[in-house]
Write a structure and sequence with these properties.
Oligomer: single chain
């Protein structure tokens, strides 16, 4: 569960200060003082002593090693590589410890340059010359990020052989055992880590992952709620709560609610995120309001509440909370972006265009240009839409939907060659795994009906929970003239929560079914349901 994220966290944890960890021998007083300065965080003083050492001996391999270390510490990768190469050139074969550490250091430079082949080659050399826990740990990290868990696990075992109390070694064994789906073993190793350092929250997250592998969600949740996570552990914990809720929603909600009621604060945030993922937006609003009561000056709380109201299509409440967020932080431009979408959802397209313009003026966001083009598209401002779609493409050429929108506009203008070129570009760029795949529309526009249906089916199979995909299917079949299939998909879209009635009214894809009795009945029925949903969300107490 979120294994790559966890492994990357382990990798970050192991990049500690080498100067403090490596008590390298030296009979050169200048180098001793340089290392002391590095351990005190004083790079300028360290450099002055290294310079003195090199002035006395221009072929001082140890001095070049520390100069390379200082360069890497200062993020000067080019200088670090040059100086570590000089270090390896001048260090004698008798200076095994320095030679090994020099290869280790060069491996770090290669990793910074994303050259894992050379990095692994240097780590192999470092281990051959003089094995160390650090070298094995670094190589294990590389293998972990390559998802070569068997090799990584073997190296982490070497780490703890050399140092029985190496916490990161046991953590690595636990995480890679999890990667190998040896969950009992993973738990055993992480238990050792927790014994050595019971206050580090990320270890409980690692163990929770292993419990999830065993489907022991109650134990996983106990570990995740043991104490409030921090740093990178916070994001990993959030993702895990939401992942566990997919399999054990009631258990996750009960555990988070109990923790939030006892400890308050950020636990309400985790609960709200779980509710939002399950599309229980009114419950999410309640949890976010609890969070807001703890952090009343935090605009992010207002932003999240506004998003929930937006998802319920409670437009007035959404706008009011976006405005609250902006009153706290006038530079919170994402509120302007979403306010425009709310206004469009209300059918206030001209106001939405103006609002999106305010957002674009401050951010030049290509997606902002695309959305404004979309608004103009739907009120048949053809030239304005083409202009905005083109600006979006100029800034972000891979923004697939902009090509589709522009192609439709070119088609309306009668520029069929330009339309065809854009439709083909959609097919070339689009992948079904994209967050908003749309190649089915391009296939249909190019007369490739079978491919359009095939692609649409793949999208629905990949994301069967997303209401918008069923609305797209209704559009596709409406364009084909297959009204009953179109109405069936529209029905499913409504059942799954699609409520964008203002868009439906403007969308010419609905023209083929708009006058049918079934369409009219559905619109009336789900507008009434929407009114009930909005009324329910309005009943949420905002004074807690």
């Amino acid at each position: 569960m979120r294994l790559r994220v966890i492994i990357c966290f382990v990798f970050i944890c192991t990049t500690t200060s080498w100067a403090q960890e490596k008590a390298l021998p030296s009979d050169d007083n200048n180098i001793v003082r340089a290392v002391d300065a590095l351990n005190n965080g004083d790079g300028r003083v360290a450099f002055s002593y290294i310079s003195k050492a090199l002035k006395e001996n221009p072929e001082n391999g140890r001095a070049f090693y520390w100069l390379a270390y200082l360069d890497l510490w200062s993020n000067n990768q080019s200088g670090a590589l040059t100086n570590v190469n000089k270090s390896l050139k001048y260090l004698s074969s008798k200076e095994k410890e320095y030679k090994s550490f020099a290869y280790e250091l060069r491996s770090q430079i290669y990793l910074a340059l994303e050259d894992t082949v050379r990095a692994l080659r240097d780590l192999d050399k470092a281990i051959d010359i003089k094995p160390s826990a650090q070298a094995y740990r670094e190589r294990a990290n590389v293998y972990s990020c390559q998802l070569k868990y068997d090799l990584s696990y073997a190296d982490y075992c070497k780490v703890v052989e050399l140092d029985k109390n190496d916490i990161l070694g046991y953590s690595g064994m636990g995480v890679t055992a999890y990667g190998l789906k040896r969950y009992d073993e993973a738990i055993k190793h992480i238990n050792r880590v927790i014994d050595l350092d019971p206050d580090m929250h990320i270890n409980y997250v690692f163990r929770a992952s292993a419990y999830c592998g065993q489907k022991q969600y109650d134990k996983a949740l106990d570990d995740l709620t043991r104490n409030l996570p921090f740093g990178d552990a916070f994001g990993i914990s959030e993702n895990m709560f939401m992942s566990i809720s997919d399999s054990a929603f009631v258990l996750t909600v009960d555990k988070l609610k109990d923790t939030a009621e006892k400890e308050g604060g950020t636990w309400w945030y985790f609960l709200a995120k779980v509710y939002s993922k399950a599309k229980k937006y009114t419950d999410a609003v309640t949890a976010y309001l609890k969070l807001f009561s703890v952090y009343p000056d935090n605009p992010v709380c207002c932003y999240y509440i506004a998003q929930c109201y937006m998802d319920i299509s409670n437009h007035e409440k959404a706008l009011s909370y976006f405005d609250k967020a902006l009153s706290m932080d006038s530079t919170y431009y994402d509120c302007l972006r979403l306010k425009a979408d709310v206004l469009y959802g209300q059918g206030k397209t001209k106001e939405a265009i103006d609002m999106k313009g305010q957002y674009i003026d401050r951010t030049a966001d290509p997606y902002g240009f695309y959305r404004r083009g979309f608004y103009k598209d739907n009120i048949r401002d053809v030239d304005g839409a083409i202009e905005d779609y083109s600006l979006a493409i100029a800034i972000l050429p891979e923004l697939v939907y902009s090509y589709l929108g522009r192609a439709d506009m070119y088609k309306l203008k009668g520029d069929l060659a330009a339309a065809e070129a854009d439709y083909k570009q959609v097919i070339q760029l689009d992948k079904v795994s994209n967050s908003s795949p749309c190649a089915h529309f391009a296939y249909l526009a190019l007369g490739q009906k079978d491919k359009a249906i095939e692609y649409m089916d793949k999208v629905l199979a990949l994301r069967p929970e997303e209401a918008g995909n069923y609305y797209d299917a209704a559009c596709i079949y409406s364009r084909m003239g297959e009204t009953e299939k179109s109405l069936d998909f529209l029905q499913t879209a409504f059942e799954k929560g699609y409520r964008k009635f203002a868009h439906i009214e403007n969308d010419d894809d609905m023209d083929a079914i708009r006058d049918t009795p079934r369409f009219k009945e559905m619109i009336q029925k789900y507008k009434e349901i929407l009114c009930q949903e909005v009324e329910k969300s309005n009943s949420v107490s905002e004074t807690d």
